[in-house]
Design brief:
By secondary structure, this protein is mostly helical. It has four domains: 2-66, no CATH class; 76-140, Endolytic murein transglycosylase (Dna Ligase, domain 1); 148-214, no CATH class; 223-352, no CATH class. It is built from 15 helices and six strands. Strands 1-2 form a two-stranded antiparallel sheet. α4 packs across α5 and α11 crosses α14. The protein is elongated, with a radius of gyration of 33 Å.
């Protein structure tokens, strides 16, 4: 049977190329009959008529039935469900503009003796394909599922991730992802996903990657003797507050010290999780927002991480640098300025933020 499929496929490939050639010649006015040979010959005229009819039939067949539709949706995902009949699949392919004729799709499948051999699954059709090629793929499970590379940068939160995944995968459920994602535990990295990936698969892969990566700093976390959830929350703040390792460790020392004496953290980065604003956009009214992420109003750590930190920020959270400082700020260029007293901090604001 495999030989029959291969023979039919080769025949249609040759036929397709020949029809294209004939069609091209007709359009260019280069296909002419030798009138001298046929003149006065009934047999020759009959032969010429039959050939012309055959060519016209094949052209019509190719143009309107065999070749891919002009509105073929490139890079589309088509699903054959378990238990779907041949007619259901044919009609669905037609409705999705993947084939021109359900009739010829059914007949190609029957010709290959695969009427009951449609293989369920998700098929990716990257470029326009003939009805025969599509029929062949669905009967031999040629899914065409090439991996899609997705890079998640450090510091991105689950809402931002969900938007990226929704754009990449047609079967991705944004709401399900957001509802089930544990902020801070979706490790930022470069991933390879299948085009039919769904939110549970994405979540599982990212969480498993987190569990694997965190092993490299397990000893430092254990030695620090604070709950992992607290460490990840602090690391998510450090990820947003600074870019350099030593700076993150210095800020970690300041913030852990504030927590130890019951002083509010008063970090601006959490507002990106509240209303999307940064330090330079915040107003006095913003600082009064009653949110569990507003560390100006509520003492202690935010209720959850505000982003998904990388290993550098996680390690910085558990290896803080002790300093006499209680305050810090950065200018628009990222330069960091520290202060021991609030008066010094106010001076730094005037000097570097205005």
């Amino acid at each position: 049977m495999e030989k029959l499929i291969l023979q039919v496929k080769n025949w249609f490939y040759i036929l397709e190329n020949w029809i294209k050639s004939v069609y091209s010649q007709i359009r260019q006015g280069c296909f002419e009959l030798d009138k001298n040979k046929c003149l006065g010959s009934k047999k020759c005229r009959t032969t010429a008529f039959c050939i012309t009819g055959l060519v016209l039939f094949l052209l019509i067949f190719y143009l309107f039935l065999y070749r891919a539709p002009t509105n073929f949706p490139n890079y589309t995902l088509f699903t054959v469900n378990k238990g779907d009949t041949l007619s259901q699949v044919a009609d669905s392919l037609y409705e999705n503009h993947l084939i021109r004729s359900p009739f010829w799709f059914r007949n190609f499948v029957i010709l290959a003796d695969r009427e009951k051999g449609l293989i369920a699954g998700d098929y990716v059709f990257g470029v326009p394909q003939s009805v025969f090629k599509i029929a062949n793929r669905i009967t031999v499970a040629n899914y065409g599922l090439d991996f899609i590379k997705v890079t998640i940068p450090e510091g991105m939160n689950k809402f931002q991730m969900a938007q990226i995944f929704e754009e990449k995968f047609s079967k991705f459920d944004l709401k399900d992802f957001i509802s089930n994602a544990k902020e801070g535990y979706l490790f930022p990295d470069t991933y390879l996903f299948l085009p039919n990936s769904r939110s549970p698969q994405v979540l599982s892969l990212m969480r498993n990657n987190f569990d694997k990566k965190i092993q490299s700093v397990e000893s430092e976390i254990a030695e620090f003797k604070k709950p992992l959830d607290d460490v990840i929350i602090m690391a998510s703040i450090l990820e947003e507050e600074a870019r350099k390792t030593d700076t993150r460790r210095t800020i970690a020392g300041i913030l852990w010290k504030r927590l130890s004496i019951g002083m509010p953290l008063q970090v601006d980065s959490t507002f990106q999780y509240i209303n999307g604003k940064n330090t330079y956009q915040l107003t006095i009214d913003d600082l009064k927002i009653d949110s569990p992420y507003n560390t100006y109003r509520h003492k202690g750590l935010p209720v959850t991480p505000i982003s998904n930190p990388g290993l550098d920020s996680i390690l910085a959270a558990v290896t803080p640098i002790e300093t006499p400082y209680f305050y810090f700020l950065s200018d628009r260029k990222g330069n960091m300025y520290y202060a021991t007293t609030f008066e010094e901090h106010k001076k730094n604001k005037v000097l570097y933020l205005n």
